[in-house]
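Show me any protein, keeping tokens residue-aligned.
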Amino acid sequence: MTSRDTMRERARALLASREDAVLGLSHALHADPELAYEEHRSARRITDLVERAGFDVERGAYGLPTAFRATAGGGDLVIGICAEYDALPGIGHACGHNVNGSASVAAALALAPLADELGITVKLLGTPAEESGGGKVDMLREGAFDDLAAAMMVHAAPSDSVGMGSLAISSWQVAYTGRAAHAAAMPERGVNAADAMMIAQVAIAAHRQQLRPGAVVSGVVTRGGDAANVIPAHTTADYDCRAASSEELAELQARVRACFEAGALATGAELALESVGNDYADLRQDFAIGRSYLGAARDLGRRVQDCDPTIRGGSTDMGNVSHLVPTIHPMIGYDCGDAIMHNPEFTRYGVSAGADRAVLDGGLAMAWTAIELASDAEHRARLLDRLAARRTGARDGAGRPGRP
């Protein structure tokens, strides 16, 4: 066997020795879902496990109580592995973050004892609030990713794929304030906040014909009024804007904001528009690292689709990471019947035998990918060169993620 093959088999054996702990973690996260920025028990479960395995752990890292940093090894090639563990309101881990986070822990545990031989530092980052808020964006601002040569994670899904992109997104809370009045006795004294919202929605609907390909505007009215015989003084809504790139998102935000301003202008209501959490950038996966992952996952017997990056799914704050660091975000699949993600039925499959296999295979495929990045001279030089260029602020493109 080659030295790479030997390292692979050692990583496999190391993960096998931790299998019960890793799967126990996945099941514990699944049974005890916590929402964005509130994942205290989830973060503690993970940090306790990796600390016992010898990692140097900092809890509450980067100014976030439920974030953490856990490191092993001291090599110059720093491989970041992102662990997600937040859940969705009312439906638990319907996006499979118990699988995501546990697979990342599996990869870190398989790599840590090999780190010094490989000349790498394994940096497991606990990244809260992916579903709402964008913990990775908060952590980016605090320098969590500054020293990374590469970043990776896998995400639960109905099937395996690598290379797919994602949409940039922004979330808004919208509120109109008018003036209440009796709807029959003195309607002329009122300022109808519900009409303002209706006009904005009609304007958005009319604008859909001019949306760029891939752009999506979606929303829900959360308060429309209180009684039919009272002109509504207050209406509220939650709205998302999505676009193929951060640049196109900025264009879309300007147009949709104008639609909401039109509602205020037409009725005389006062508009308040507030951003919710961080804007997410589009995901730009690194093709060279993606090919390494693809080979590793197929060597494990998985059927992985190699996707066109112009095919975009939902949105993720891993997109923001990918604009700074060469990044991969493959999907790791398991049988979930007809269930779709962000649906209670998908939650039910998160502790199935298939989900458990996804945790272990996803973790080992990432570990094998890291081994290749470290042991292949071309991979290693490319990543270290990009890191050096990023640190010196090079503007010639050398610091951007790889292209085909």
Notes: The domain at 3-166+280-391 is CATH 3.40.630.10 (Aminopeptidase). DSSP finds 13 helices and 14 strands in the chain. The longest helix spans residues 353-375.
